[in-house]
C-alpha cells in the first residue's frame, strides 16, 4: 500500500518552490511537455476590438497549451501596438486653431444633424378619448373616490371629514354585501334557502372593518373571514360555545368586552329577505334592483346617524361614564343657553368657587408663586380674584404664577400672555439679582431659570414679529445680564488709581477637564478653540451665558432691532446696556461687538450724531450717554479697538467744546454724556491717543477747571452728576500728564511715535490744581461741603502722584524730602498689609514692594536700633522670674533675629525665586503702573482668580518643599535627597517668619493661629531628618515658644486647605513614630495638641492607636514651656479616654520616666474621676474589664 502511494506521488508533477532556480523550472517544464499530460487550463486569445470583429481581416488563432512548441519562446519583446486614437490627438505648432476647434466641436448641431426620422405613414392615428377626470388627478380634502357627500347630521351641523370617511367605508361594505347576496339568489329555490338562514349569517362583521387591508377587494376578504367564523360557530354545540365564551371573558380585558358588547348593541339591523317581494313578471328583475338601492340608502343613513357612537378616537375603549346629577354641577344649565345641549363637567368645574387658602404656616416646602411685579406671594395670603392671579392649574386656591407656569405661558399663542409672562420673568430676575429672595427661597432663582432654558426662551422671543413681545424679551435679557449697581460702582471707581482698568466679567466656575484628553500627548490634545467649537449651544450657555448668547447670533438680532425695528426709548436703552455688558465680558466679546456688521455704525450714526435738533420727538437722532459709555467700554478692551472708535474725533469736540447747558439736551442727560465723553477721552489718552485734541480744546478744559472749586450745594439734585463730571475731567488730565511724561522716551526704532503733547504742555496745570486741593482740605470743616470735598480730594492726589512721578523721570533731578526716612517703619508695615491684597494686573507693584521695601534693612528699623538686644533682655527677665532650668534653645531668639537681619538680602532672593513664574505678568503690568501710556496694549486686566499672593505667602518656600517632596514621598527623604537648596530655603523662610512674629505681628494676623501651626508642621512632614538640622531646629524652637504664648490657638477649627486638624495630627504622629528618635522638639510639637481644651480625638489616637510612642515622649515639664494645668484641668469626662488612661497606668505602658507630661496628666484625671464620684462604682467596674 505504501509502495503504491509512493509511486503515484512520484508520478505527479511537483509544485514549484521559492527555492527553485531557473534551471529547475525549465527542467520541470520539459518533463511536463514530454509526458504529454493535458493542461489544467486553456488560454484563448480574444479578438482585438480595435481591428474589427473576430471573423474580419486576418484570422485569429486560438492557442491551447497542448499545441505549445517544445522550444522555449523568444525573450525579445514584440513591437508595441499602435493606437488608432493617438494620431488624432497629435498636434502641431503650425496648425490652425480654428480648424482644431472645428474638429473637436461637440455642439448639439453635430448630433442633431445625424438624426434620421422614423417613417410613421403606416401608423394609425387615434383621437384622444374624452373623460371627466382631470389630469393630474384632483384630490379634494373632504371627498375622494371612495367617499360620498353626507347629509347633515341629526344635530343640525355638518359631520367631520373623518366621520364622512367612515360612513363612506360602511356604505361600500353594505353595497358589496348586497351585491354578493343578489348573485347568490338568482332563482326561487335559492331564495327559499336564503329565508332559512340566520340573520347573523347575512349581516356583516361588527368589529372587523378591513380598512387596514391593501387591495381593491378588502371588503370581500372581510366578508369571507366573517363567513368562516359563522361556519365555525354553526358547527359547534351550545355547550362548546358557552365554554369558549367563558375562556374569552376570563382572558380579555373587561373594558374590551364592554366595548364589543356596545358595538353589538349599535349594529346595523339585518336586511329583509328579497323573497318577500311580489313575484310577478314586472318584478322578477326590477324589484331586486329597487331593493338594493333602498337598502343601501338605509345602510348609509344608519351609519351616519350613529357617528357619535361608532367613531371614537383614543378613548373608545374606556367606559362611558354617566352624566353627573344636576345638583353636583357648580351651575344649573338652562335650555335657552347656547351650546349647552351637551354638558362638559370638566369645564364646568372652572365655575366652582375656589377652596380656601391655607390659614396656618407649615414647615413643608411649597412651590414659589409670584405676582406680575415679581413679588413672592406667601402661601397663606388670600388675594381677590379680580387681580388676575388665579388660574385653573395646580393649587387653584393659591394666587400667583410659578416659574413653570410662566414658562408655559411664554409659549402661548396669545400675544398678551406671552408679553405678560416675559415681563413677569424680567421683574423676578431683577428682584433675584437684588437678593430679595435669599431669605425666603431655597436655592438660586437665577440658576433655576438658567437650568430650565431661560436663555433659549429669551433668544426665541427676540425673534418674535410682535414688537411688544420682543420688547419684553429685551427687558428680561437686560435684567438677567446687567446689574445696575455694579455698573454704578464701576463708574464711581473710574477716577481711582488705575480706575481705567477693569477685570473681565467672566463666570467664576472653572471648566472641567476633558476625560478624552487624559493620557494623550500635548500635540494630540485638542486646543481650547477646538473644544469651544465642538460644544453645542446648550453646553456653552450652561457654562457661560454671554458666550452662549453670542453663539446664538444675538448681536445681528440686536442690530436688526436698532436699525430696522427702531423700538421705544426704553428698549433702545436696554439694548445699549446689554451691549455694554457683553463688551465687559472679555476682549474677544468686545471684538465681536466691533466686528458685527453695521452694529457700531448704527449706534454712532443714530445715537451719537454730530448735529441734532432740539425738537426731536424720537430718541433717534439724539446723543445718548449710554451709547458713549458703550464706546468707552469697548475702547478699554485694547488700543486697536480704541483707535477704531476715536478716529471720528469730531464727536468728542462737539460735545466738550461747549458747556453742558448749551447742548440742547436735558440737564441730566447733558451732564451724563459730557462725563462719558471725558472718560472716553481719558481711556484714549491712556493709550497715548487723541492727545492732539488736548491742545485744541485747552481753553475749554481750563474753563471747566475754573468751575471745579465752586462746588454746587448739597441740596442741588444735579450735584452728584456734576461731581462725576469733575472727576472724569481730572482723570483725563492725569492720563495726559502720564503721556506727556513719556514724550522723551518715544521715537526709537522699536518705540511708538512720540505723542503730540510734551512735558511743557502740562506743567502749568499743577499750580492751579494744588490750589484747588488746599481749598478742598479747608472745606472739610464745613459740614455742607465735607462730602463733596472728600469725593474730590483722592482724585487730586492721584493727579499729583502722576505729576511728581513723571517729574522725577525728567532730565533735571528732584530733591527727596528727608522727613520721609523718619516714617520708614510705617511704610514697611503698610507694604506688608497691602501685599496680600493686590489683584492680577499689579504684579509689577508686588515685585517692587518685595525688592525695595519689604526685605530692605532701611525699612526695618528695629534691626539696627537695638531690637535684638531688647528681645534678649526680655528673655533674661523671664528667666529670672521663672528660676527654672529651661532649654538652652529658648534663650536664642535675640541672636536668631540678629542673624536674620544680616540675611535679609538672601531671604529676598529666596522669595523672589519662588515667585519667578510671575515674570511675564510683571513685564505686562509694568507699563501701566509706571504710566508708559504709549506702550499699554489694553486696559482690560487679566481674569480675576484671587490675589496675586496668598495671605500666608511668608510660608511659601516651606509649603513648596512639602508639595514637592512631602506629599509624593511621604516625608521619607533625607536632607541630602531633597532638591538642591531646600535646606537653605527652609532656613530663610523660618528666619523671615521669626522676624515677622517678633517685630511685625500685625502683618500675620490675617493668618489664623491654627493655620500657622499647620504650616510650620511641614518642617517635620517634608523630610525624615530636616528638623534635626541645627539652624532649622533653633529657628523652630523659637517659633514654637511664640506659638505657646497664644491663647487664641484653637485647634478645633479646621485650618484653611484641610478638612480637619485631626487628619494633620494623625500624619504628625505617624511621622513621629517613624523618624523622630525621641527628638525633644518633635515631642513638644506632638504634645501641644494634647492639652485638655482641645479635641478628645487626638488624645484617643495617642493612647489607643499609637500607644507605643509613649516610651519616647521624654520631654520634661520645664522643656515644654506649657503650664501643666493646661493638661490636667478641667477633669476629663470622656469614659473611653479614662479607660485608656487607667489601662496604660496599670499595665505600665505609661511611666513617669518615659513620658512625664502625659503620666502626670493621666494620673490626675484618673484620680479625679475615682475620688470625686461616689456613685461611680458601676463605671469603675466597667473600666477594670
TrEMBL record:
Biased segments, Basic and acidic residues type: 50-59, 522-538
Keyword line: Nucleus, Transcription
Annotated RPAP1 N-terminal domain residues: 224-265
Keyword Nucleus: yes
RPAP1 C-terminal domain: residues covered: 367-432
Record's subcellular location: Nucleus
A Pfam family the protein falls into: RPAP1_N
Region Disordered, residue ranges: 36-89, 202-221, 263-299, 311-331, 508-538
Family (UniProt): Belongs to the RPAP1 family.
Name assigned to this protein: RNA polymerase II associated protein 1
Species, as recorded: Astatotilapia calliptera (Eastern happy)
Amino acid at each position: 500500500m505504501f509502495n503504491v502511494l509512493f509511486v503515484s506521488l512520484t508520478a505527479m508533477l511537483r509544485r514549484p518552490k521559492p527555492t527553485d532556480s531557473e534551471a529547475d523550472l525549465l527542467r520541470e517544464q520539459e518533463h511536463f511537455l514530454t509526458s504529454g499530460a493535458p493542461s489544467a487550463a486553456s488560454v484563448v486569445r480574444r479578438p482585438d476590438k480595435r481591428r474589427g470583429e473576430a471573423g474580419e481581416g486576418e484570422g485569429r488563432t486560438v492557442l491551447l497549451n497542448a499545441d505549445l512548441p517544445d522550444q522555449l519562446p523568444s525573450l525579445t519583446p514584440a513591437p508595441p501596438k499602435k493606437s488608432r486614437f493617438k494620431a488624432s490627438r497629435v498636434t502641431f505648432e503650425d496648425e490652425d486653431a480654428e480648424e482644431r476647434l472645428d474638429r473637436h466641436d461637440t455642439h448639439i448641431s453635430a448630433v442633431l444633424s445625424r438624426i434620421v426620422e422614423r417613417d410613421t405613414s403606416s401608423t394609425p392615428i387615434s383621437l384622444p378619448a374624452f373623460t371627466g377626470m382631470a389630469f393630474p388627478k384632483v384630490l379634494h380634502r373632504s371627498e375622494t373616490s371612495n367617499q360620498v357627500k353626507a347629509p347633515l347630521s341629526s344635530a343640525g351641523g355638518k359631520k367631520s371629514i373623518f366621520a364622512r370617511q367612515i360612513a363612506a367605508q360602511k356604505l361600500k361594505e353594505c353595497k358589496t354585501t348586497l351585491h354578493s347576496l343578489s348573485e347568490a339568489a338568482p332563482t326561487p329555490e335559492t331564495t327559499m334557502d336564503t329565508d332559512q338562514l340566520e340573520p347573523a349569517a347575512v349581516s356583516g362583521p361588527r368589529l372587523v372593518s378591513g380598512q387596514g387591508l391593501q387591495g381593491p377587494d378588502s371588503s370581500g376578504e372581510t366578508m369571507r373571514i366573517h363567513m368562516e367564523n359563522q361556519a365555525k360557530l354553526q358547527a359547534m354545540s351550545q355547550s362548546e360555545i358557552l365554554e369558549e365564551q367563558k375562556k374569552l371573558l376570563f382572558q380579555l380585558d373587561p373594558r374590551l368586552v364592554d366595548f364589543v358588547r356596545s358595538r353589538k348593541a349599535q349594529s346595523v339591523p339585518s336586511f329583509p329577505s328579497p323573497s318577500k317581494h311580489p313575484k310577478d313578471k314586472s318584478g322578477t328583475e326590477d324589484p331586486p334592483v329597487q331593493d338594493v338601492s333602498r337598502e343601501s340608502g338605509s345602510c348609509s343613513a344608519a351609519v351616519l346617524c350613529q357617528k357619535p357612537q361608532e367613531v371614537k378616537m383614543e378613548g373608545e375603549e374606556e367606559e362611558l361614564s354617566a352624566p353627573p346629577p344636576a345638583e353636583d354641577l357648580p351651575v344649573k344649565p338652562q335650555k335657552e343657553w347656547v351650546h349647552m345641549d351637551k354638558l362638559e363637567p370638566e369645564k364646568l368645574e372652572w365655575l366652582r368657587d375656589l377652596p380656601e387658602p391655607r390659614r396656618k404656616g407649615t414647615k413643608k416646602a411649597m412651590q414659589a408663586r409670584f405676582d406680575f411685579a415679581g413679588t413672592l406671594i406667601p402661601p397663606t395670603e388670600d388675594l381677590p380674584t379680580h387681580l388676575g392671579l388665579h388660574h385653573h392649574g395646580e393649587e387653584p386656591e393659591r394666587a400667583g404664577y410659578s416659574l413653570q407656569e410662566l414658562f408655559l405661558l411664554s409659549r402661548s399663542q396669545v400675544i398678551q400672555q406671552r408679553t405678560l409672562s416675559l415681563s413677569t420673568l424680567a421683574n423676578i430676575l431683577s428682584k433675584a439679582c437684588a437678593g430679595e429672595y435669599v431669605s425666603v427661597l431655597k436655592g438660586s432663582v437665577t440658576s433655576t431659570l438658567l437650568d430650565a432654558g431661560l436663555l433659549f426662551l429669551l433668544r426665541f422671543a427676540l425673534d418674535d414679529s410682535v414688537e411688544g413681545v420682543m420688547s419684553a424679551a429685551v427687558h428680561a435679557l437686560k435684567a438677567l445680564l446687567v446689574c445696575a449697581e455694579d455698573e454704578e460702582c464701576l463708574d464711581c471707581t473710574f477716577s481711582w488709581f488705575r480706575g481705567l482698568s477693569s477685570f473681565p466679567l467672566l463666570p467664576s466656575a472653572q471648566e472641567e477637564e476633558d476625560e478624552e484628553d487624559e493620557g494623550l500627548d500635548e500635540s494630540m490634545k485638542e486646543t481650547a478653540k477646538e473644544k469651544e467649537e465642538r460644544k453645542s449651544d446648550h453646553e456653552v450657555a450652561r457654562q457661560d451665558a454671554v458666550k452662549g448668547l453670542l453663539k446664538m447670533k444675538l448681536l445681528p438680532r440686536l442690530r436688526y432691532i436698532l436699525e430696522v425695528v427702531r423700538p421705544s426709548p426704553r428698549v433702545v436703552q436696554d439694548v445699549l446696556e446689554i451691549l455694554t455688558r457683553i463688551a465687559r465680558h472679555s476682549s474677544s466679546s468686545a471684538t465681536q461687538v466691533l466686528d458685527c456688521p453695521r452694529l457700531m455704525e448704527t449706534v454712532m450714526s443714530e445715537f451719537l450724531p454730530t448735529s441734532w435738533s432740539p425738537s426731536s420727538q424720537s430718541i433717534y437722532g439724539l446723543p445718548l450717554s449710554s451709547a458713549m459709555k458703550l464706546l468707552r467700554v469697548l475702547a478699554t478692551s485694547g488700543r486697536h479697538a480704541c483707535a477704531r472708535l476715536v478716529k471720528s474725533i469730531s464727536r468728542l469736540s462737539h460735545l466738550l467744546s461747549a458747556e453742558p447747558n448749551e447742548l440742547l439736551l436735558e440737564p441730566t442727560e447733558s451732564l451724563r454724556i459730557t462725563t462719558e465723553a471725558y472718560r472716553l477721552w481719558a481711556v484714549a489718552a491712556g493709550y497715548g491717543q487723541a492727545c492732539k485734541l488736548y491742545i485744541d480744546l485747552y481753553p475749554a478744559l481750563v474753563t471747566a477747571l475754573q468751575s471745579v472749586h465752586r462746588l454746587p450745594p448739597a441740596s442741588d439734585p444735579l450735584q452728584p452728576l456734576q461731581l462725576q463730571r469733575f472727576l472724569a475731567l481730572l482723570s483725563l488730565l492725569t492720563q495726559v500728564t502720564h503721556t506727556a511724561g513719556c514724550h522723551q522716551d518715544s521715537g526709537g526704532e522699536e518705540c511708538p511715535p512720540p505723542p503730540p503733547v510734551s512735558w511743557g504742555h502740562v506743567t502749568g496745570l499743577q499750580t492751579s490744581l494744588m490750589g484747588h486741593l488746599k481749598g478742598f482740605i479747608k472745606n472739610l470743616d464745613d459740614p455742607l461741603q465735607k462730602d463733596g470735598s472728600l469725593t474730590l480730594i483722592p482724585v487730586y492726589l492721584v493727579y499729583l502722584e502722576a505729576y511728581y512721578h513723571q517729574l522725577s523721570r525728567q532730565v533735571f533731578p528732584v530733591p527727596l524730602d528727608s522727613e520721609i526716612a523718619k516714617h520708614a517703619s510705617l511704610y514697611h508695615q503698610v507694604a506688608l498689609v497691602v501685599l496680600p491684597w493686590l489683584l492680577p494686573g499689579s504684579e509689577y507693584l508686588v515685585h517692587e514692594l518685595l525688592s525695595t521695601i519689604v526685605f530692605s534693612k532701611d525699612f526695618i528699623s528695629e534691626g539696627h536700633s537695638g531690637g535684638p538686644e531688647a528681645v534678649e533682655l526680655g528673655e533674661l527677665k523671664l528667666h529670672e522670674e521663672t528660676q527654672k532650668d529651661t532649654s538652652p534653645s529658648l534663650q536664642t531668639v535675640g541672636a536668631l533675629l540678629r542673624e536674620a537681619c544680616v540675611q535679609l538680602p538672601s531671604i529676598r532672593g529666596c522669595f523672589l525665586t519662588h515667585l519667578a513664574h510671575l515674570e511675564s505678568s510683571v513685564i505686562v503690568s509694568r507699563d501701566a503702573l509706571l504710566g508708559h501710556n504709549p506702550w499699554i496694549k489694553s486696559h482690560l486686566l487679566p481674569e480675576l482668580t484671587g490675589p496675586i499672593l496668598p495671605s500666608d505667602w511668608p510660608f511659601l518656600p516651606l509649603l513648596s518643599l512639602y508639595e514637592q517632596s512631602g506629599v509624593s514621598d511621604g516625608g521619607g527623604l533625607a536632607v541630602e535627597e531633597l532638591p538642591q537648596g531646600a535646606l537653605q530655603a527652609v532656613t530663610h523662610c523660618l528666619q523671615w517668619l521669626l522676624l515677622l512674629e517678633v517685630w511685625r505681628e500685625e502683618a500675620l494676623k490675617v493668618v489664623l493661629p491654627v493655620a500657622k501651626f499647620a504650616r510650620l508642621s511641614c518642617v517635620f512632614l517634608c523630610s525624615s531628618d530636616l528638623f534635626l538640622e541645627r539652624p532649622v531646629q533653633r529657628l523652630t524652637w523659637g517659633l514654637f515658644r511664640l506659638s505657646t504664648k497664644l491663647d487664641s490657638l484653637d485647634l478645633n477649627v479646621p485650618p484653611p486647605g484641610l478638612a480637619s486638624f485631626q487628619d494633620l495630627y494623625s500624619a504628625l504622629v505617624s511621622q513621629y513614630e517613624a523618624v523622630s528618635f525621641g527628638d525633644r522638639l518633635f515631642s513638644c510639637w506632638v504634645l501641644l495638641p494634647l492639652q485638655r481644651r482641645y479635641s478628645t480625638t487626638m488624645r484617643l489616637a495617642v493612647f489607643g492607636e499609637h500607644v507605643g510612642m509613649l516610651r519616647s515622649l521624654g520631654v520634661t515639664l520645664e522643656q515644654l514651656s506649657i503650664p501643666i494645668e493646661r493638661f490636667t484641668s478641667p477633669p476629663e469626662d470622656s469614659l473611653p479616654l479614662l479607660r485608656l488612661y487607667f489601662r496604660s497606668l496599670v499595665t505600665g505602658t505609661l511611666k513617669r520616666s518615659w513620658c512625664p507630661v502625659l503620666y502626670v496628666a493621666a494620673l490626675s484625671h484618673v484620680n479625679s474621676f475615682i475620688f470625686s464620684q461616689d456613685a461611680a462604682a458601676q463605671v469603675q467596674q466597667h473600666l477594670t474589664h
